[in-house]
Amino acid sequence: MDDAAVHVLVFPWPRQGHINPMLHFATALVDAGVQVTFLHTERNLRRLAQAPPPGLRLLSIPDGQPDGHPPGFLELLESMSTTGSAAYRALLSAADAPVTCVVADSTIPFAFDIAEELGIPSLAFVTHSACSYLAILSMPKLVELGETAFPADDLVRGVPGMEGFLRRRDLPRGLCCAERGGEDPLVLKIAEVTARTSKARALIVNTAASMERSALAHIASCTTDVFAVGPLHARSRFAASASLWREDDECMAWLDGHDDRSVVYVSLGSLAVITHEQFTEFLAGLAATGYAFLWVLRPDMVQMASSALLREAVGAAEGGRGRVIEWAPQRDVLRHRAVGCFLTHAGWNSTLECAVEGVPMVCWPFFVDQQTNSRFVDAVWRTGLDMKDICDRGAVERTVREVMVSDEIWGVAQAMAQQLRLDVAETGSSSSDFERLVHFIGELKH
Ligand code: UDX
Could you tell me the pTM of the whole model? Predict the structure, then answer.
């Protein structure tokens, strides 16, 4: 490596929904002439189904977890903070080319602490929305105010800029339908970790000012420098996602056989695990709509059920109208003319990917940021409807039907897509913020 070059170490939280946006970010940096090292865990590096984008150097550290064990967030944070952090420190200290700065996921506090200890500036990358970042940060205060639990429809006063529409049921929570609201230890831990991003030299958010102007302004008022550079996938030359599962490309031919806007695409992201009862309610609701559907059911997704069994259940109920796959080429699916709506958990990547294609959403949020994102989809952006914590066949049928036939929602979703394309075009606000960021990083070298 050229010692004179700006060299950024990009360190995502080792989960699919964090790797994807940070990989798009890394390739954008490479395109801007920056040298980039991308840090995976050893386990994920082995699992990657696809070659890395050219120009990107991949390194890895252990996650401290035994093989074959899918850990929860708190468990993984603990082992990453011990085993992973020691390897990270060693790697940073021994880097063959000096690291100008670290850009680490906002979820990994040790990444900032260790970098700064070694005299390396650190920047925090937020893979979720600006609105959910604010909501998460507000959680400890909301617990104090007693604003987190039921009654679910009461408006929340403690999250800046959202006083008029954010309800208690839209606040981050640990598990779908859990009744403990913000007292949930997972949410409070995430709030604590998120608060530590104030130590970072700047905050990079995968969002666009046109979508989240108010939330970004509130964040900017209490932090150093904020860069809204998203949706990053829409400006990335790296076409596919860095999937940890093998994508089922055959579903594209299946979509080709359907009319425009006639298929419901269903995916609850990379982490959600649903009960067998929830699966049954979704299936019955989808069947009752009469629409064809493409459903992503990861092998580990439904408690106590194999994917073969689920495929059989869907086949029997649907007489061929439903297709189940284990992992989709999601961005291609959303871009397909046959897709009329996306039944989604409202994870931020899925929300952005859907918004860029102008596809209406039906949201069934599962946890943490998704609760707030889905409220914004319904009440602020108006690009879809939010089922929130209701999961029964009637709600699924009603909401999917309503979104599929609504020209109004379709029109708003298409207008948002157009705006986002302008935002990531050469003179758009996200591109300008990205350029400003590259300059900011360059200045750190001096
Ligand atoms: C969670 C959070 O909800 C999200 O907001 C946070 O930033 C990361 O962790 P996750 O469940 O992974 O996210 O959902 P999402 O953010 O939507 O990311 C999933 C990614 O996997 C998307 O980029 C999506 O395109 C991809 N995906 C999903 C596929 O490529 N194929 C699939 O079949 C399903």
Answer: 0.95
